[in-house]
Amino acid sequence: MNVYYLPTRIPSGPEPIVSEWPSFPTRLRNAWWRVRLAMVEVRGILRSRPRYMGGVLAYEPLAEDEPLVPTRRPSRPATVIELEAARRRLRRDSQS
Fold first, then answer.
1. Which residues of 55-87 are buried (b: 16+ CB within 10 A; e: fewer)?
2. DSSP letter string, 24-41
3. 51 Cβ partners below 8 Å, 6+ apart?
4. pTM for this one?
5. 24: Cβ contacts below 8 Å, ≥ 6 apart
6. What are phi and psi of 73, to 5 degrees?
């Protein structure tokens, strides 16, 4: 097996000084977008309608002596899947 080593790169001059902080325009742009997103969230919260949970406002304190009983969904019969009838329908449709 042949292994080739490439020569190391020799810097032509002093290495540039890398700043830890982004430039001022970059920081300003980032701050602007953070403010915009925060304002959108605040506006959404202020514009939202109060949510109801079972006839009670979500942010009203609940009375301790009245237990909160969740409402049940109306039940319906289970859906029965007839595989054999579905296969017959598929065969009939594919033959047409």
1. eeeeeeeeeeeeeeeeeeeeeeeeeeeeeeeee
2. HHHHHHHHHHHHHHHHHH
3. 57, 58
4. 0.34
5. none
6. -75, 145
Give me the torsion for CA of 56, 57, 62, 63, rounded to 10°. -50
50 close to 59: Cβ distance less than 8 angstroms? yes
CB hemisphere CA count around 75 (13 angstroms): 2
| Residue 38 reports pLDDT greater than 60 | yes
Alpha-carbon span 29 to 26, nearest angstrom: 5
